[in-house]
Amino acid sequence: MLKILVLTDFSSGYSRRLLEGIIRYSREAGPWSFLRMPMYYQMMYGETGVVNFAKRWKADAIIAQLRDVNFDLFKELDIPIIVQNYRDRKDYISNLTGDYYETGVMAAEFYIGKGYRNFAFYGYKNAIWSRERCQGYKETVEKHGYECMILENKNPDNKEWLYNTEHTGKWLQSLPKPTALFACDDYYALQISETCNINNISIPDEIAILGVDNDTLLCNLSTPTLSSIVLDVENGGYQAAKLLDQYIKNEINEAFNIVVKPLYIENRPSTDKYAVSDPHIRFILDYINNNYSNKISVSDLVDLVPLSRRVLEKKFKDIIGTSIYQCVLDHRINHFIRLLLTTDLHLPDAAIQAGFDDYKNVSRIFRKYKSISPAEYRKLYKNE
């Protein structure tokens, strides 16, 4: 029986889903025995204490959330170690990491598609996942010709849960309105939500808030509830456990990286508005949002507003940055992705529910978005 020492933060939704993926693989390949070690053990006894405990327990592998890895210290264990990277990735150790930059890109494109022109990021400077999400968000915003205001928490180590509501509140009040704010994770998004409520800043009318991890407890604690980027966490845990098993069996002998991908945005009331002043374009956007799964065409939309087709399409492109047809297509593809990952619907049925009427055409369009077929995408990312 393999003995796996797990040192991570069991309170977060991310860590729990990660463990669910690890456990799912262990049930297929096991038997495995897990020993959960809370983060305070490392804080009390240091990495030397963790290493000594692993020796006494005769652990076969370690999965850990460590901030600064003293690899020489852990190397004497001569067992595989997967580190949930915090400050930086380590070239000489297996990292459980993420496509943090792409997560920032997804957030920026989501907001730009809602017509926002003012952008802000709130995060934690000492964490790689926050820095790279900020980078992806900021660079995408700037690529479209806009600026991004940034506030990064610089509290001492182990105290990132502390934040100055007065300082954060003044920063939020200083932002132009409306502003599309992206937070490095749901915990930081909740801080923004709480601070907005303290300072009577309306969400999402003045500040829209988007987090990461889709931790439903944190998202539902917020008033209004928080939108969040859903990550492929459980599958990441499964792949980490699979590679760990191969490492223990000497089927692989080099350090590896497991990269958790962003999947889609769970849209809740904290981002449920379009930042568009033109009443006709805002009406069209709301109509698309509520009816994209039905059969609608550009001609149908033209009939809803007192504008010619040429004027409407030009206005829409100038304000939103994309065509009306592309906007409808984006809504349908995003809903189709959610159905692929959260239901067992047959692919043609999922396509119909998303607003498509020709599955072959959907498959062709989907490849342009994701470079693989819908069936391949579901197989790769859906947690069974």
Order of helices and strands: EHEHEHEEHEHEHEHEHEHEEHHHHHHH
So what's the overall shape? globular
The largest pleated sheet is described as: 6 strands, parallel
- List how many beta strands DSSP finds: 12
Can you describe this structure?
This protein is of the alpha/beta class. It contains 16 helices and 12 strands. It has helices at residues 13-29, 39-57, 71-75, 100-112, 128-143, 165-174, 186-198, 216-221, 233-248, 279-291, 298-302, 309-320, 324-342, 347-353, 359-370, 374-381, and strands at 2-7, 32-37, 61-64, 81-84, 94-98, 119-124, 148-153, 179-183, 207-212, 227-231, 257-260, 262-266.
Keywords:
single chain, 384 residues, alpha/beta, six-stranded parallel sheet, six-stranded mixed sheet, 12 strands
List the helices and strands and how they pair.
Blueprint: E1 2-7, H1 13-29, E2 32-37, H2 39-57, E3 61-64, H3 71-75, E4 81-84, E5 94-98, H4 100-112, E6 119-124, H5 128-143, E7 148-153, H6 165-174, E8 179-183, H7 186-198, E9 207-212, H8 216-221, E10 227-231, H9 233-248, E11 257-260, E12 262-266, H10 279-291, H11 298-302, H12 309-320, H13 324-342, H14 347-353, H15 359-370, H16 374-381
Parallel strand pairs: 1-2, 1-3, 3-4, 4-5, 5-11, 6-7, 6-8, 8-9, 9-10
Antiparallel strand pairs: 10-12
